[in-house]
Amino acid sequence: MSPKHDKRDATYNQLEAGTKQARPIQHQHAAEIQAYGKIAKLPIALDEKTCATSTENLNQLLADTMTLRDMYKKHHWQVAGHTFYQLHLLFDKHHGEQDELVDQIAERIQLLGGISLAMAADVAETTMIPRQEAPVQISRLLEAHEMILKEARTMAKQASDAGDDGTNGLLVSDVIRTNELQVWFLAEHLVDVPLVRADQRKAATGGD
Predict the structure, then answer these.
(1) Which CATH number belongs to the domain containing residue 98 in this structure?
(2) Is 43 left (phi over 0), alpha (psi -120 to 50) or beta?
(3) Does any domain span residue 206?
């Protein structure tokens, strides 16, 4: 090997050594610090059993809310027909509001000392909202909303009875009220109100 080549290798080694600490440490592995379903209790003046119950309930609600959120985005993309523009915008608005609920529910779970669901595979295994292929978008959304509202009301009462006011407040003030309002906006699209022209109505009543 030539001296010139040796010098080039030495220079490269020096450069590599000089950047070693600045390089990201990749492909790391570590031991699990908290298993799913276990509570790492925080000093929030709630007993561990209450935290565990609320966490279990909220993870179910989280999975269903994430499913509903994704249904809204799916329908936002795929809606068609003469009401396309209105529903395209409405579905996206509701998706954003459900996404905010997802964040609030997940953070509440973490605050209670639990581990929130996050990955799509876990959500798909946990959600109670059935997968349907029929393209009846608004009906599917209303059924999913009703399912979430039923479980949210039950969970809110359980949290209230256990003294978990934070979880109760989240469920009542955010989850229930948001879903109720969205149901109203959706359901009104299914009311069969015929278009009536003023002159037709006048003729029907015998007016001049």
Answers:
(1) 1.20.1260.10
(2) beta
(3) no
With residues binned 3-state (H G I as helix, E B as strand, rest as coil), the percentages for the chain, rounded to 5, are 70, 0, 30
What 3-state class would DSSP assign to 130?
coil
* The token pair that represents 207 in the structure block: 């007016």
Residue 78 inside a domain? The answer is yes
Amino acid 131: pLDDT: 86
Flag whether pLDDT at 199 surpasses 70: no
Spell out the residues 6+ positions from residue 145 whose beta carbon is closer than 8 angstroms to its own.
68, 179, 182, 183, 186
Least confident of 9-23, 123-137, 150-164, 181-195: 9-23
Of 203 and 117, the structure prediction assigns the larger pLDDT to 117
Q: How far apart, in whole angstroms, are the C-alpha atoms of residue 153 and residue 174?
A: 12
Which pLDDT score is estimated for 194? 79
Does some domain include residue 61? yes
Does 169 map to a domain?
Answer: yes
Domain span at 79: 48-189
Give the total number of structural domains in the chain.
1
> Which residues, in sequence order, are CB contacts of 41 under 8 Å at separation 6+?
48, 51, 113
Q: Using alpha carbons, list the distances in angstroms from residue 130 to 37, 68, 119, 124, 141.
A: 24, 11, 18, 10, 11
The SS3 assignment for 193 reads coil
pLDDT in tens, 135-183: 689 999 999 999 999 999 999 999 999 999 999 999 999 999 999 999 9
